[in-house]
Amino acid sequence: MSSSSTSPHPKPLDAQNTKHVVLGNLLFKTWYQSIYPEDLVASDTDRLYVCRWCFRYSCDGAAYRKHTRVCEHRTTPPGTKVYDDAGYSVWEVDGEEYKLFAQNLSLFSKLFVDHKSVFFDVVSFLFYILVFTDPNNPDNYSILGYFSKEKLSWDPNNLACILIFPPYQHKQLGKLLMGVSYKLSAWEKDAALIGGPERPLSEMGKKSYVRFWEERIARYLLLDKHGEDSGDGVLVKQQQKISKSSSKKRSHPQKSMSVQEIGLATGMLTDDVVTALTSMGVVEPTTNKKRKKASSSEEDTTAEDRSVSVRKSKVMEWVRSRRVALQDPVREEGFLGGWALSDLNGVRSVESEEDE
Length: 356
Ligand SMILES: [Zn+2]
Hints:
By secondary structure, this protein is an alpha+beta fold. 24% of the residues lie in helices and 18% in strands. The protein contains seven helices and 14 strands. The strands form four sheets. A five-stranded antiparallel β-sheet has the order 5-6-7-8-10, with helices on both faces. The longest helix is centred in the middle third of the chain and has 21 residues, at 203-223. Bound molecules: zinc ion. Zinc ion binds at residues 51, 53-54, 56, 67, 71, 73.
């Protein structure tokens, strides 16, 4: 099974490596070791030209410019559009159907990601590319990044590898892709599909995910549409046992909720909920003395059993102090096709074909 990331410490760049890439009209430095075939891309290449639509590459600027005039994807990205909002769209590209595209995208990405394992077997992956379309010219688009996902995963992974290309980083676009990846894991239909990114995460990946999870939970606890202001009551109590079937999606934050319940409402793994709450610093020491102290065996210290409580005022303070915008990076209305909203509750209807 491939792993999304191996070393938390980037290896120093080999002196013999492709140093810069030209993507469309952008020139920028590479970060990590190239795995381009050496007979096509010499190891001391200073400038590699990469097509911004299909990721074909060339060391020869003239050949590259010639290609961009005839590129088969120059006006439309490959695959099927699954999301579209405010100029940003996400397209699902099957690595088997678009093998060359997926291989070239992977080779390019490797220059900015410090692991190799997911880059060879593109056929068993789906690629979700993030596209920005020029509002004044619908034929002019750029691919800003992507995430990949294993078609069949035995682990609860909703994402294998995620990358926003360097010129487009620090614009909250990673959060947009993460939000889309959670939606596409289909946890809203079936709680058994709740998942998260493939582990282990790189250092940068972990930082990005923890922030994404923190905001996702804060948004749920503070902004839920059906929520009533519960004052400053204790919001989360891990002790409370709930059964999966009794919980409804996005049920309003009660005075007391379990970590599992937050996970079910946000599509997050219990471990990730605990990670986020702890990182936010909003967890208060539990005062529940009734907790069985029967054993200190290992089974007793799993995430399922951890006891935490959180106050809403602390969550609000966290939001204020970090100037977090609670707006969801992903708009439900932006999803298309099978992922489109079909009723007010965001539950997909299966009866539409029988209607009329
Ligand atoms: Zn091209």
